[in-house]
Amino acid sequence: MNGYQRILKLFSIFAIVLGTIVLIGGLIIAISVFSVTSNPESLEAITESLAAEGMEDVDADDLVQTVGQSGGVVLLIGGFVLATGILGVIGANDPKKSMPVYIFSIIGLVAACVTLASGILAIFFGAPLTSPNGAITSVLSVCLMAIFFWLARRVKKIAYL
Fold first, then answer.
1. Which residues, 6+ apart, have CB-to-CB distance to 113 below 8 Å?
2. Would you give the end-to-end CA distance of the chain in angstroms?
3. How far apart are CA 127 and CA 154, in angstroms?
4. Which residue from 9, 7, 6 is spatially nearest to 90, judged by alpha carbons?
5. Which of the residue ranges 92-96, 112-116, 135-139 would you say has the lowest mean pLDDT?
6. Could you tell me which residues come within 8 angstroms of residue 40 by beta carbon, excluding any fewer than 6 positions away?
7. In the chain, where the domains are located
């Protein structure tokens, strides 16, 4: 096992841990949304708290639906990161099996770049940012997927030498 394979394996293990944490977060969101939607008193409590904050125009049902959709996206991202990590470990151990992590890293890099570009466009067109953490996360995602792409490409080349 050469240096590129070791580094790919290390990054893959990090991705497995990160993907697992993100999946757990997505499951917590999904369970929370399910518990709120199954209890009408919870929706009434949300509506009352929104009214107390001066946000009468926000519908509690729409808010819960938006949070639920966000939880679904978090689950998809976590699953993708976890799958990339697992494929990375497999590819690091056997370079001939590194093509799937190479493909996943390309897909992840494109998705991360699109996310970063949409955040930049939102800044230029005056959309309010919810937090600066979104920009930091986008930049880190692009960096992580670029490293995965580079490492997977190097390991894939080892297999065909």
1. 142
2. 14
3. 39
4. 9
5. 135-139
6. none
7. 3-159
